[in-house]
């Protein structure tokens, strides 16, 4: 009995302890039957009070799906276009193969002479023979290149596969051996054959290509390349572009631009590099990429004394002068003596000698008719065109009689 009473008291105490909480809370039934909502935090409702964005979200999703669909269509259309282009190329190739297989071997292709004369190539080769004395090996190489271009054009006319050969060139030799003249003729041949739009030659040196400060080299090099587009860019003494003693030299940047143009624009620009053979060989060893891009290496030997005399005859003909037969012997002695001295420059030395001979002839003629009054001061056309032995003898005497420390300037 005592135990039962104790349990009853414990139960009653627990119920009293929870009574206030029960009185202050609303039953679930009362909540859903319209009971006072203040019991849920002073009138706060369980209803959602934010903005409904479900419609906008669906719109954005729809736009994204539409964009993705458009992108997929573009990708598919591009793939279809490429596939169709490839199919067209395959059809053209198969048609060409069939055409070439059906073409008889005795199909007339025209004569080589017809192409040589029709395109004006033979005219340029004749000018090269007429204007450039000697250099048999050089002329032979130029004719070989011309033959390749002519035959390539004949093949193209019949439908054969063709590709632009590597026309970049290296000219090695001493000054005055005709490198610039050959470059000009090659540019004109390329233009006649349709391998160059203009065929002109732009001569450039380090000063034309390399700048003096950071950011200056690229614009200068690109400007020279722009001028030469459609023709030939002849870089004289190209080895000066590379300075092995200075890793920060700006010439390396110019070389890299030239290499890129030689690789990617060979169908519209021919680059020719020129200079002394030993120095050009060293330059190619430093820049192997330049060597590998050049397919035509032409070496220009020095002229002989007899060839230089012939060059003087060509120059006098172009300038409308007449050299007396006896004057050629004096001139040859001068050339032989001058070849033994430093800084000999082949045809350039001949040109300088001809300029001095013309000046000596002018002084002699002026003294005869203006000072001495010969023939009443009247001279003939022959007098104005004449170059006599004494006009060259003055040059020879300068070498033979001057002091040894001055002879190199003769």
UniProtKB/TrEMBL annotation:
Assigned keywords, A-Z: ATP-binding, Nucleotide-binding, Signal
Chain residue ranges for the region called Disordered: 35-67
Record-linked SUPFAM superfamilies: P-loop containing nucleoside triphosphate hydrolases
GO molecular function: ATP binding; ATP hydrolysis activity
Leader peptide range in chain numbering: 1-17
Domain ATPase AAA-type core positions: 170-301
InterPro entries: AAA_lid_6, ATPase_AAA_core, CbxX/CfqX_mono, CbxX/CfxQ, CbxX/CfxQ_RuBisCO_ESX, P-loop_NTPase
Family per similarity comment: Belongs to the CbxX/CfxQ family.
Full protein name: AAA+ ATPase domain-containing protein
Species of origin: Thalassiosira oceanica (Marine diatom)
């Amino acid at each position: 009995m005592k135990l039962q009473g104790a349990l009853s008291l414990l139960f009653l105490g627990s119920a009293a302890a929870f009574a206030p909480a029960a009185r202050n809370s609303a039953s679930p039934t009362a909540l859903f039957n319209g009971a006072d909502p203040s019991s849920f935090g002073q009138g706060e409702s369980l209803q959602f009070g934010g903005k409904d964005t479900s419609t906008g979200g669906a719109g954005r999703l729809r736009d994204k799906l539409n964009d993705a669909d458009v992108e997929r269509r573009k990708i598919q259309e591009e793939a279809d276009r490429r596939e169709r282009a490839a199919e067209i190329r395959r059809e053209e190739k198969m048609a060409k193969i069939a055409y070439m297989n059906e073409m008889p071997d005795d199909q007339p292709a025209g004569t080589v002479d017809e192409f040589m004369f029709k395109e004006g190539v033979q005219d340029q080769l004749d000018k090269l023979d007429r204007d450039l004395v000697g250099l048999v090996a050089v002329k032979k190489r130029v004719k070989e290149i011309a033959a390749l271009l002519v035959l390539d054009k004949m093949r193209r006319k019949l439908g054969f596969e063709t590709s632009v050969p590597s026309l970049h060139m290296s000219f090695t030799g001493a000054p005055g051996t005709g490198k610039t003249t050959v470059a000009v003729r090659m540019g004109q041949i390329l233009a006649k054959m349709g391998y160059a739009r203009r065929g002109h030659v732009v001569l450039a040196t380090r000063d034309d290509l390399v700048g003096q400060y950071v950011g200056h080299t690229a614009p200068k090099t690109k400007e020279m390349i722009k001028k030469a587009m459609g023709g030939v860019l002849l870089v004289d003494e190209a080895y000066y572009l590379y300075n092995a003693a200075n890793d920060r030299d700006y010439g390396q940047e110019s070389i890299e631009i030239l290499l890129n143009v030689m690789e990617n624009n060979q169908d519209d620009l021919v680059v020719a590099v020129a200079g002394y053979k030993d120095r050009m060989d060293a330059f190619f060893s430093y820049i192997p990429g330049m060597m590998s891009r050049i397919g035509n290496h032409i070496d220009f030997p020095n002229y002989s004394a007899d060839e230089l005399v012939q060059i003087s005859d060509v120059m006098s003909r172009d300038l409308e002068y007449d050299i007396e037969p006896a004057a050629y012997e004096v001139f040859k002695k001068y050339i032989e003596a001058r070849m033994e001295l430093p800084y000999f420059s082949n045809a350039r030395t001949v040109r300088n000698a001809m300029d001095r001979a013309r000046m000596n002839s002018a002084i002699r003629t002026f003294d005869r008719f203006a000072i001495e009054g010969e023939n009443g001061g009247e001279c003939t056309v022959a007098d104005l065109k004449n170059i006599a032995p004494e006009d060259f003898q003055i040059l020879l005497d300068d070498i033979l009689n001057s002091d040894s420390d001055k002879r190199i300037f003769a």
